[in-house]
Design a protein that fits this description.
- There is one protein chain.
- By secondary structure, this protein is an all-alpha fold.
- The protein has one domain (4-107): Non-ribosomal Peptide Synthetase Peptidyl Carrier Protein, Chain A (Orthogonal Bundle).
- Helices cover 53% and strands 0% of the residues.
- It is built from 5 helices and no strands.
- It is globular.
- The two termini are 26 Å apart.
C-alpha cells in the first residue's frame, strides 16, 4: 500500500497530465475553479487514477463534492484504497460500490 505522500504525488502528477499543466499543481488548488477541469476532464482524470492504482474507483472520487482540491482528491483516493484493501482482506470496509470504471465507460460507449 502506498503512503499518503506517494498518493498525493500520484494525484498531483495525474492532475497535471490530464489538464496539461506545465507548472506543478499545488495541493490547495481546486480541480475546477483553479485548474479549469470540466466534467469530461474529471472522467479522464478518474481513468488515469484507475490505471495508476490498478483498481476501479468509486464515482465519488471526483463527483461527491462539486470542486475538490488536489489534496482533497488525494485524501479520498487514499481512503478509498484503504477500504478496498480492507474489503479484499476480509474486513468490513464500506468503500466498495460499483466503481467509476463501469458507468463512465458505458456512458462513453465503452465496456463496463
Amino acid at each position: 500500500m502506498k503512503s499518503r505522500e506517494e498518493i498525493l504525488e500520484l494525484v498531483r502528477q495525474a492532475v497535471a497530465e490530464t489538464l496539461r499543466k506545465k507548472d506543478r499543481v499545488r495541493d490547495d488548488q481546486k480541480i475546477g475553479q483553479d485548474l479549469g477541469a470540466e466534467s469530461i476532464d474529471r472522467i479522464d482524470l478518474t481513468f488515469r487514477l484507475e490505471e495508476v492504482v490498478e483498481k476501479s474507483l468509486d464515482e465519488k472520487i471526483l463527483f461527491a463534492e462539486p470542486d475538490p482540491t488536489v489534496a482533497d482528491l488525494a485524501e479520498r483516493l487514499g481512503t478509498m484504497l484503504e477500504r478496498q484493501n480492507e474489503k479484499a482482506c476480509g474486513g468490513d470496509g464500506d468503500g466498495g460500490g460499483d466503481g467509476i470504471g463501469a458507468w463512465p465507460r458505458k456512458l462513453l460507449g465503452g465496456h463496463g
